[in-house]
């Protein structure tokens, strides 16, 4: 799932950024990717399909899909 890859990549990039504007953009992209992953998992679940994460640790995936959709502050 591309959202998993995005979450992994953005999380890593956030550790290397020291520009506040770039950090805000990355944080918002990360929030969007988590929301997309939630929607993807929910759509599969509605069809009786259980998604198994390919790039995220199972605990991180469960924490994301088990939490509510996020809204933006920016």
Summarize the structure.
This protein has 74 residues and is mainly alpha-helical. It contains 3 helices and no strands. It has helices at 2-14, 20-46, 58-65.
What is the overall number of helices?
A: 3
Low-confidence stretches: none
- How is the main sheet built? none
Which sequence of SSEs, written as H and E, runs from N to C? HHH
Q: Compute the separation of the termini in Å.
A: 26 Å
Structure notes:
- The relative contact order is 0.19.
- The chain is mainly α and 74 residues long.
- The protein has helices at residues 2-14, 20-46, 58-65.
- It is built from 3 helices and no strands.
Write the layout of secondary structure elements.
Layout: H1 2-14, H2 20-46, H3 58-65
Helix pairs in contact: 1-2
Notable traits:
74 residues; mainly alpha; 0% strand
């Amino acid at each position: 799932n591309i959202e998993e890859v995005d979450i992994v990549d953005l999380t890593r990039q956030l550790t290397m950024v020291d520009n506040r504007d770039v950090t805000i953009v990355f944080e918002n992209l990360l929030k969007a990717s988590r929301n997309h992953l939630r929607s993807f998992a929910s759509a599969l679940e509605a069809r009786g399909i259980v998604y198994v994460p390919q790039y995220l640790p199972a605990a991180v995936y469960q924490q994301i899909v088990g939490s509510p959709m996020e809204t933006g502050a920016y």
